[in-house]
C-alpha cells in the first residue's frame, strides 16, 4: 500500500464495519488517513474500530443507518468538529439477496433501493457542508449490476444504476468546487458477505469463477488499492468515472443467470 499518500487526511467510510468497505478503511489507514466508520450495528463498529486501533491506526465510529439522513448528518458534523474538513467520503453501505422479481415484495425492492441509492445520496449530500473544498474525494461503491442486468437482483441492479448516476451528477455539480466524485465497481470479491449471498455453495462459486476471464475472485486489497489511488492527489484529474476492478467479469456478468436456482 502507498505509505503516507493520505497522511493527515480524514476518511469517512459509510458501511465500513465489515467486508470490502472495512478493507478499504484499512487501506486508507495504512496510507496515513484517520478513519471514521459508520454502520448500523454498534457491536460491528466497535470490533472494526478496535481492529484498526490494534493495528496502530487512528479510528473511530458511529452507529447509524444510512437511510436516516439526520443521523448520517450528525455523524459527519461530529467528524468535522473533531477532525476538521473531511477529505475522503466513501459510500459503501448496501444490502442484497437473491430474489426472483415475481416473488420480491415491494418493500423488499424498496429496502435495497433505500440502503444503496438513497443511502448514497444521504451520505454524499450530508457530507457537502463538511468537505475539504477544494480537494475532497468522494467514492461510491457500486457494482457491475448497475449496467448489466442480472437475474434475481432487480433490486440491486436498479439501486446500483442509481448510485452510478448520483456519482456522475455530483461530479458535474460539485466539480467547480474542487470536489471529485467517482465510483468503484468491484467484481466478485473473496470472503465477503456479498459473495456468500450470491454464490452460496462451492459448486455455485466454481461455476461463477468459470465465467470470469481472470478465473478467480478478487480480494479486498484489490479494491483498497484502487480506493487509495482515487482518494489520493495522484488521481487529481479523475472525476465522474466508474472504475471496474473485476478481473474483466463485467464483460460476462450477464451470463451468470441463475433463474433455475431460486
Ligand atoms: P458487507 O460486509 O455486508 O458490507 C455492508 C456494510 O454496510 C456493512 O458494514 C453493514 O454494516 C453496512 N450496512 C448495511 N446496511 C446499512 C445501513 N442501512 N446503514 C448503514 N450501514 C449499513 O458486504 P460486502 O460484500 O463487503 O459489500 C460491500 C460493498 O461492496 C457493497 O456496496 C456491495 O454492494 C459492494 N459489492 C460487493 C461485491 C462482493 O463481491 N462482495 C461485489 C460488487 C459490489 P451493518 O450491518 O452494521 O449496518
Ligand atoms: N428474499 C426476498 N425478500 C427479502 C429477503 C430475501 N432473501 N430478505 C429480506 N427481504 C424482504 C423482507 O421480506 C422485507 O419485505 P416485506 O416487509 O415485504 O416482507 C424487506 O425485504 C425488508 O426486510 P428487513 O429484514 O426488514 O430489512 P432490513 O432493513 O432489516 O435489512 C436487508 C436489509 C434485507 C438487505 C438485510 O439483508 C441486510 O441488512 N443486509 C446487509 C448486508 C448485506 O446485504 N451485505 C451484502 C452487500 S452486497
From TrEMBL:
Q: Which PANTHER family match?
A: PEROXISOMAL 2,4-DIENOYL-COA REDUCTASE, PEROXISOMAL 2,4-DIENOYL-COA REDUCTASE [(3E)-ENOYL-COA-PRODUCING]
Return any one Pfam family short name: adh_short_C2
Q: Which GO BP annotation is one of this protein's? A: fatty acid catabolic process
The name of this protein is SDR family oxidoreductase
Do the record's keywords include NADP?
Answer: yes
Signal sequence annotation: none
Gene Ontology molecular function: any one: 2,4-dienoyl-CoA reductase (NADPH) activity
**Keywords for this protein:** NADP, Oxidoreductase
Task: List the residue ranges forming a coiled coil, or say none.
Answer: none
Give TM segment ranges.
none
The UniProt entry, under InterPro entries, shows: DECR2-like (IPR045017), NAD(P)-bd_dom_sf (IPR036291), SDR_fam (IPR002347)
Q: Which organism is it from?
A: Sphingomonas chungangi
